[in-house]
Amino acid sequence: MSKGKSNDKPKRISNGHKVKSSVQKKGSTHSKITKPDNFPFKLAMWDFNHCDPKRCSGKKLERLGLIKNLKIGQKFQGIIISPNGKSVICPLDKSIIEENGAAVVECSWARLDEIPFNKLGSAKNERLLPYLVAANTVNYGKPWKLNCVEALASCFVIIGHYDLAEKLLDNFSWGPTFLKINRELFEIYQNCTDSESIMKAQDEWLDKIEMENKLKKERNKDEDIWMMGNTNRNHESEEEEEEEEEEEEETESDAEYDNLGNVIEKSEKYDKLGNLIEEDESETEEYDNLRNIINKHDLIEEHSEEESEEESEEELQYDSLGNIIANTQKLII
Predict the structure, then answer these.
(1) Using H for helix, E for strand and C for coil, what is the string for 95-129?
(2) Cβ atoms 105, 46 nearer than 8 A
(3) Which one of 25, 37, 74, 290 has the largest count of C-beta atoms within 10 Å of its C-beta?
(4) Is residue 129 marked as binding?
(5) What's the pLDDT score for residue 293?
(6) Average pLDDT estimate for 305-310
(7) Strand partners, 263
(8) pLDDT at 326
(9) What is the pLDDT of residue 66?
(10) Using the 8-state DSSP alphabet, how is residue 262 labeled?
(11) Taking Cα atoms as reference points, which of 106, 164, 161 lies closest to residue 138?
(12) So what EC number does this one have (predicted)?
């Protein structure tokens, strides 16, 4: 670039947008910071173009005419919300903000090491924010990760200008949610007097969260144990199951099967009076070729009949023609 030419020529950045360099060059004059027409206090920011312009809350405020973009090295006498601060914002900062306004650093949380904080306004007015939870679409639910408009709104709530915080956040669909999820914390911080009391309140809140998380883990652990049921009862159930299995095995061992593997059911026997006839376990039933039970009583009777017939046949005598020879002894009688 030739000598004497202005370096304010637009340059293209990684996201494809053309922006003017925000670096203040030697000999140039500082533009005067004035309060916007639609807001009672001065608002400013140092924009390092780290964010997506479509999602950047600082750029949206700039388009709405609510905030002014500052150059590196440009003086600002108001409160500066910065990660480089040594103390937190508190109600004592109200007079400084009402007189000189508030400013933020528009940059990525992942690229803080690239920011020349020593060249941004007055170091004595740099402030940290106390513990708060983000509601923006990029870092929703994350503590500490506030964007520009959330940081500015937090300043106004803590110093007692809740209405101004609402006015800024109403430009974002998620804005009212930020005030809602941090309502209890804001009430605590508003009742503090200085940075030390806010830090104390913050530490107490963090201790409370830690204790609640610890109790929640213990409660979940206890619930897991109860979901397992009565461990003593489970042990008893296992013993009962083992006994049932043993009984089933004994029953199966006593069962008899036919040639096809089917269980042969044993029928109970009763006498004429309906009394159960107990069988002698030593006796076993016999079956014929058709698997019919052979009645031992009938066999005995048949056997005795055969014996009597044989005896009768032995007593009778026959002649050569097959005629029975009468017993002479009986004829004589």
Answers:
(1) HHHHHHCEEEEECCHHHHHHCCHHHCCCHHHEEEC
(2) yes
(3) 74
(4) yes
(5) 66
(6) 61
(7) 257
(8) 61
(9) 93
(10) -
(11) 106
(12) 2.5.1.157
**Helix (H/G/I), strand (E/B), else coil: 324:** strand
| 105 labelled binding-site residue | yes
Rg (CA), the chain: 52
Yes or no: say if 101 and 151 are a contact pair by the CB < 8 Å rule.
Answer: no
CA distances from 161 to 23, 91, 158, 164, 229 (A): 33, 10, 7, 6, 55
d(CA 140, CA 306): 107
Per-residue model confidence as pLDDT tens digits over 238-266: 666 677 766 666 655 556 666 666 666 66
Q: Give the torsion through C-alpha atoms of 71, 77, 83, 88, to 10 deg.
A: -160
| Burial zone of 314 (CB within 10 Å; 0-12 exposed, 13-18 middle, 19+ buried) | exposed
How would DSSP label each residue in 270-309? E-TTS-EEPPPTT---EE-TTSPEE-HHHHHHHHHHHHHH
Average confidence (pLDDT) over 152-173: 95
Structure pTM? 0.56
- Which residues, in sequence order, are bridge partners of residue 68? 44
Q: Establish whether 104 is an annotated binding residue.
A: no
Alpha helices (H) in 36-110, listed in sequence order = 57-63, 94-100
Amino acid at 79: I
Question: Hey, what are 270's tokens?
Answer: 């009763």
Buried b (16+ CB within 10 A) or exposed e, 136-173: beebeeeeeebbbbbbbbbbbbbbebeebbebbbeebe
Q: Residue 321: pLDDT band by 50, 70, 90 thresholds?
A: confident
In whole angstroms, give the CA distance from residue 316 to residue 137: 124
CA–CA separation, 106 vs 149, rounded Å?
10
Amino acid at 214: K
Strands 286-287 and 293-294, bridge-based pairing: antiparallel
**Packing angle of the helix pair 148-158, 162-169 (nearest 10 deg):** 160
